[in-house]
Amino acid sequence: MSSRSLDDLLPDVAVKAKAFIASCQAAGIQTVVACTYRTDAEQTTLYAQGRTAPGPIVTDARAGQSLHNVRRALDVYPLVNGKLCGLSTQAERDLWEKLGQLGEAAGFEWAGRWVHFREYPHFQIKG
Ligand SMILES: [Zn+2]
């Protein structure tokens, strides 16, 4: 099972997540939260995808290794004309960069800066 509710994050993380989403709105960026808390079982299913199950690889984290499993991470997508923002045009990449900067300003580590397995929608706060 996985949740999209900010209230399923740890309380201190939820406060920062709400401030992050509010700052996006203030900047005129529409967003959708795709995932907050994810159970270990769901993480195992996700890790199998692209390895022992069909589909593309979407995560590098096994159960217990993702900060989603401990309520410290959320996945956020900017919306363009009501659709999830892609990465194919410069305008789309600029929008992701702006989202990333707003997340960082709210106190999150942005996985869009990771060199290994970069994940543009992923924002986290380590314990
Ligand atoms: Zn994530």
From TrEMBL:
InterPro entries for the chain: Peptidase_M15C (IPR039561), Zn_M74/Hedgehog-like (IPR009045)
Keyword Transferase: no
Domain Peptidase M15C residues, every copy: 61-125
GO MF annotation: an example: carboxypeptidase activity
Keywords: Carboxypeptidase, Hydrolase, Protease
Family matches, as Pfam families: Peptidase_M15_4 (PF13539)
Protein name per Swiss-Prot or TrEMBL: D-alanyl-D-alanine carboxypeptidase family protein
